[in-house]
Design a protein that fits this description.
Blueprint lengths: L5 H21 L7 H20 L6 H25 L5 H25 L10 H27 L3 H23 L1 H26 L5 H30 L6 H25 L12
Length: 282
Amino acid sequence: MSALGPIEILFLLAPVVVAPLAMRLTAAPADATPALWAARRIQPWAALAVVASFFVHRGAVAGALAGVWMVVTALVAWHGLARLRHSATMAQIAVCAGCLLLPVGGGWLVLSRLGLGVLGFEEPLILLTAVHFHYAAYATLVLVGNVGRAVGGGRVFGVIASGAIAGPLLLAAGITFSPVLEVVAAGIVALAVCGLGALTLVRVVPRVPPAARTLLALSSVAAFAAMALALAYAVGEVTSHPVISIAQMARIHGPLNALGFVLTGLLGWTLVPRYNLGRPSL
């Protein structure tokens, strides 16, 4: 049985809690494709399979259990692909992009549970990549889409959304191929997420019900702290003078980003009546 450390626990929150919340916010019931409906129906059983995969030794059985979750991520991506051609706003495009990136996280989860290294990466970086594409890509872009719907788009939002879409892929490429690209990408992600937090505080928080207001404000504040740590880690990597270790990132940045920013933000948006947002179809 694999030990459940901070990284494993943060990942397991994704299929069990974060992904179902994000799937709910990905599209209103009337706008959900059959693929998204299927993903929502399978999700509880797939989440159980993922949890079970962490209680057996890495190998074929653990990989097969994780593969059930891969099916859910593929269905979410199918929804994103189907809706992308009908997307007319950056808010819609951001959500579709998040859907399309989710299977990358599902694939790295399967690799992690199989116990396979790839591109010279070993644990915990393989599981961290799975975490990255569940939180920093899919869930964050769902948050971006909801903010975009609420504020009605605009030039500032367009820049934020573009950075949030490009950032996770550039960061993954930088970690793989180039420390300089890693720092640049970390800067793009940090600016996009901090911009999202600022836009939420200024344009969204004053307009939503009290409970949602509190959660979205906390999410925005957590985003600033989490992104500062992420940028410090990337700078330390490229200068060979670590500011914060990967273990400290897992203990501090991970909870701030996953729980403080992402989960709190998703919970906040579930409390916002959709008819108050001027919601275009996704």
